[in-house]
Design brief:
The chain is 51% helix and 14% strand. The chain is of the alpha/beta class and 223 residues long. Helix 3 runs parallel beside helix 4 and helix 8 packs across helix 9. Strands 2-1-3-4-5-6 form a six-stranded parallel β-sheet, sandwiched between helices. It has ten helices and six strands; from the N terminus they run βαβαβαβαβαβααααα. It has two domains: 131 residues, Response regulator (Rossmann fold); 82 residues, Orthogonal Bundle (Arc Repressor Mutant, subunit A), CATH 1.10.10.10.
């Protein structure tokens, strides 16, 4: 399946870099490249892409336009995936991005833009309703844990917290198994135990509970 993508980036060099990179990928149809929030809004309304890849800061305000756009898109076009690119390590922006729903959302640092495999993973994941969080942001949140009061995460074992951190980056069970050199059964056991300890609704689907767990992970590390 070819994924229709709109890119929003005010820097001409980065926007052209993204255009050239995506032009080499047979899984993408880049339908528009824009430089401001008004242009992005118009392009999405006109073209209804599958995914938007957007900078956090764009004209007219150069503040948090990409996050505000994702928040609005969750209400107006909930099926469109969003990959937000940030120049700086800002966990607060990631929290805002996922606050309206983690499904179909990715947050990456701009240094990942040149990594075709990483960008492809993010675009394909949000298209399928998945969640991707840059590993460096996860690392910052983990480090922040020691400075905060006890959270629901205190109920987890060190291995369960490690597995949850990898879930937060969008890795599948198989990928976690390979990363930690565990059996598939062990990974499933850790995830099941984690979901139970976080008191997530057992009647929800496994996918939805994983998303909820990621949100608990993020909010607990920012409290």
């Amino acid at each position: 399946m070819v994924i229709r993508v709109v890119v929003a980036e005010d820097s001409y060099l980065i926007r052209e870099g993204l255009r050239l990179l995506l032009a080499t990928q047979d899984y993408v149809d880049l339908v528009a490249g824009v430089a401001s929030l008004p242009e992005l809004t118009a392009a999405v309304d006109e073209l209804t892409p599958d995914v938007v890849v957007t900078d956090v800061r764009m004209p007219p305000g150069d503040q948090d336009e990409g996050i505000r756009f994702a928040e609005a898109l969750a209400r107006s076009h909930p099926r469109i995936g969003v990959v937000v690119l940030s120049q700086h390590l800002e966990p607060e922006w990631a929290l805002r991005l996922f606050a309206t729903g983690a499904a179909g959302r990715a947050y990456l640092l701009k240094e990942r833009v040149g990594d075709a495999a990483q960008l492809r993973h993010a675009i394909e994941s949000v298209t399928a309703g998945g969640t991707v969080l840059d590993p460096l942001v996860v690392e910052a949140l983990v480090q922040a844990r020691t400075r905060h009061a006890p959270s629901p995460l205190s109920r987890l074992t060190p291995r369960e917290r490690q597995v949850l951190a990898l879930v937060a980056t969008g890795l599948s069970n198989a990928a976690i198994m390979n990363r930690l050199v565990l059996t598939e059964r062990a990974v499933e056991k850790h995830i099941t135990s984690t979901l139970a300890k976080l008191d997530l609704d057992p009647h929800d689907t496994q996918v939805h509970r994983r998303v909820q767990a990621v949100l608990v992970y993020l909010s607990s590390n920012n409290s």
